[in-house]
Design a protein that fits this description.
Largest sheet: 5 strands, mixed
Oligomer: single chain
Helix content: 40-55%
Radius of gyration: 37 Å
Number of helices: 14
Strand order of the largest sheet: 4-9-8-5-6
Shape: extended
Number of strands: 16
Protein name: Reverse transcriptase domain-containing protein
Structural class: alpha+beta
Length: 540
Amino acid sequence: MHQSYVNPYFSELLIDFITHDSDLHKKISDEISIIINEIDKGKVTSVTERHITKLNKLRELKNFSEDIKHSSTTISPIKNYSKRVLTRDETLALENGLDFIFPSLKFDDETFIANIETLFVNLLGYCSEKTDYDELDLDERISYNLTPEQLCLATKLRKSCDTFRQHARKSISRYKKEIDPIVKTLKNLSKDKTIYITRPDKVRAVVILERSDYLTKMELILNEPKTFKQLDEDPTIQKEDKLQRKLLHLKNIGFLTDSEYKFTRPVGSQPGKAYGLPKIHKDGVPLRPIISACGTFNYKLSKLLANKLKHLRTSPTIVIDTFKFVKELQNLKLNTTNIKMVSFDIVSLFTRVPLARTIDLILDKMYGPIHTCSFSELKRTDWCSKCQHRYELKWLLDISTKDSHFIFNEKLYCQMEGVAMGSPLGPLFADIYINYLESKLKRRLDENGVLYWKRFVDDCFVLVNDNADINKLLDILNSFDVDIQFTVETEKNNSISFLDILITRTNFNVNETDLNTLPIELLHSFLRITKERLSIVSVE
């Protein structure tokens, strides 16, 4: 009887439960589906991002490869004055420039491991008082008690190092495939002994000359009897011995410190080596003779003296930086309707600098006018300290600049006049003497129309009044010293070249634009120098 009453309710409850369970099952299924979809979506996103990253890296590697193969400037930096016609591969290889550095194709495993071990030991702290493993006793052992955390970090460091080494080897393998053809091209080009490849004077480019023309021009310069003389014997050993004895004496009397003596004392000296840099901005491409003084008996002494005397060459007329010069032009306030631009160039300045007069100028700036000590009958040891120091410095300047000998084309020469361009004292002597010339002629030049004067070594940029007599200005400059002679170039089409810039005059507002030429360093070169670009200056 009770069963008859209970069954209907039980049936309803069962139906309700089944219905509710079905809804719950569906709800759970929906929840699970949502979770699975989220997981799938996250996986897809992660995989997509990873593949995009790989694709971007592959694109970067391809771009790097194309940079090495096809890097070139809008205007080729190659100036080919030879008869050789360059192939496309040779042109692309040379357009990288003479300062281009390829990446290293060797991985130094031993140095890498040693550096990582040193880093790890430094992080942990030394467990031995000995700073060098060679000093350790044979039975002494170094042990490190690492914590679990340190062991974990050491494992991570090891994995990171292994990953780095793998990437390094892959990169080297990739670079090698790109670089080998370029290196092979350059080596084949270097085998051609009929051409001479060099850099130009004052600007960045690659110049190719006929070797015979190069040798002829250099020998024409070196055969000038007043400036150079050919030698039969090498005087290096005698000059080195003479300087060694003098430096020891100067150290003993306290004129040189111990460190200065050790730095300047010559050992194993060799003659200088001469070469020529072509002036590609001049008609006929003349050469500027350079004497590389590295390794000569007086090279380090010249470096020391140049550093000690560098404050004597400062002058407001000297151009130190092209970009500062451009900004200075931009700030000039002149009525340009009545001005002209002129460039004066000093002929063979370094071989014409009067050494005796320049040395006297240096000594006067350092010690004042010469005293009577040097004219008296007193022994040099009894002179005043200024006169003694003046004498010793003069001796050092003389031996650093006079009678410099060098080799060119297996012949030995001696420079009898001027200072060698390539000596650390060369630019110093040139600037000091020309500063003196400018100071003596400034009033006359200003009276004859000079408004603005800037100079970089032997090149002068000048603004003058429109009615100024250029020939008279040239005569004034050439009248000061018969050995220091100037040439002149006037503006053409309101433009004139100065160093690595072209200056154009309109209303004298200065605008700076890019010059399509060889940059100082290509971006994919492994010698990371700040990329600077040459400029065309528009003076409106």
